Amino acid sequence: MSFLRVCSLSELAEDTPKRVQVDGVAVSVVHTDGEVYAINDTCSHANVSLSEGEVEDCRIECWLHGSSFDLRTGKPSGLPATKPVPVYPVKIEGDDVLVSVSQES
Questions:
Q1: Is 9 within the bounds of a domain?
Q2: What domain range is 81 assigned to?
Q3: What is the pLDDT of residues 53-63, one digit of tens each?
Q4: Is the full-model pTM beyond 0.90?
Q5: Which own/partner pairs from 22-28 qualify as long-range (CB within 8 Å, at least 24 positions apart)?
């Protein structure tokens, strides 16, 4: 699994998604409740950036239609989205946030 640096931890405001590119994949990185999560930035219901939504209770909400996705699993909490979005492993090294979007083991 190859991890790439996406930002510094100090760049992440609590409960405020940050859109980054990892190997050509748009990813929303979120620092909430002392953890950092990486989730695909595109809502599975519509081609909308999740990083423009709000974060609450370890969920990110799509600003357009209101579906929320669990930051840990990518599963939607309700309609209109029915399909999960991919989540990605995160590593913190010092102040660096690293994310892997590769499917390698």
A1: yes
A2: 4-99
A3: 999 999 999 99
A4: yes
A5: 22/88, 22/99, 22/100, 22/101, 23/101, 23/102, 25/101, 27/88, 27/99, 27/101, 28/60
